[in-house]
Design goal:
Elements: E1 10-11, E2 14-15, E3 42-44, E4 47-49, E5 54-60, E6 67-74, E7 77-84, E8 112-116, E9 120-122, E10 127-129, E11 132-142, E12 145-151, E13 167-190, E14 193-209
Antiparallel strand pairs: 1-2, 3-4, 4-5, 5-6, 6-7, 7-8, 8-11, 9-10, 9-14, 11-12, 12-13, 13-14
């Protein structure tokens, strides 16, 4: 399965500086230089687009972790993912900035929101999730074991007011280490999977229509 690895992008000379809230050492974040390897995406007036069935638009560049929105189709299902896109910025991500055993907002600032336009089956378990918009959280037990959480309270800041009682569904996520780290956290659609890529990990879960 091909992997789309997101890095720093230059759009017309403008470098989007991205961070995940305040760096763990309290120092201001500096913007890393773009890497030689760039994703297979082209710049448009609306953001980044490709031939894999989705587009990413940058909605807000006034914050350190720009707000982005992915729109596209995965396995015949229309999906929208709205998220804050942080940078590694030479920090230790997993087990530190993203602690194990705690629910993570899966991005920066506002909780990530995911919208399905129809009822879907998600995860290897094929659990049914009704159409709608959910906040998308993750719970890493360790680097290799992740739980994907769909919470019915779509609009919330981070995970500070997260309530397990409002969970619509929890499924297991698939974790895969990659040899080329992604400086910025981004989402992608690949084959039948929704993917979150950051640092040296891809966390993914399959999506399918609830009814064929």
């Amino acid at each position: 399965m091909q992997r789309i690895i997101f890095h720093s992008l230059l759009f017309g000379g403008l470098l989007f500086a991205v961070s995940c809230n305040t760096p763990s050492n309290g120092a201001p974040e500096t913007t890393p230089p773009p890497t030689a390897e760039q994703p297979d995406m082209a710049s448009t007036d609306d953001g980044m687009t490709n031939d894999r069935g989705y587009n990413i638009a940058v909605l807000d560049t006034t914050v350190k972790s720009p707000r982005k929105e992915l729109t596209g189709t995965v396995n015949g299902v229309d999906v929208t993912i709205n998220y804050g896109s942080p940078a590694v910025n030479e920090r230790t991500i997993y087990g530190d900035l993203v602690p194990y055993g705690k629910v993570w907002r899966t991005g920066a600032n506002e909780a990530t929101r995911i919208t399905f336009k129809q009822d879907v089956k998600v995860g290897a378990e094929g659990a049914t999730l009704p159409a709608g918009t959910y906040s998308l959280f993750t719970l890493p037990e360790d680097k290799n074991n992740w739980t994907i959480i769909f919470n019915k309270t779509a609009d919330q800041w981070g995970a500070y007011d997260y309530s397990e009682a409002d969970d619509a569904l929890r499924v297991k996520g698939m974790a895969e280490e990659v040899s080329t780290p992604a400086e910025r956290m981004d989402f992608a659609l690949d084959d039948n999977n929704v993917e979150m890529m950051w640092s040296d990990l891809v966390i993914s879960f399959p999506v399918a229509p609830a009814a064929r």
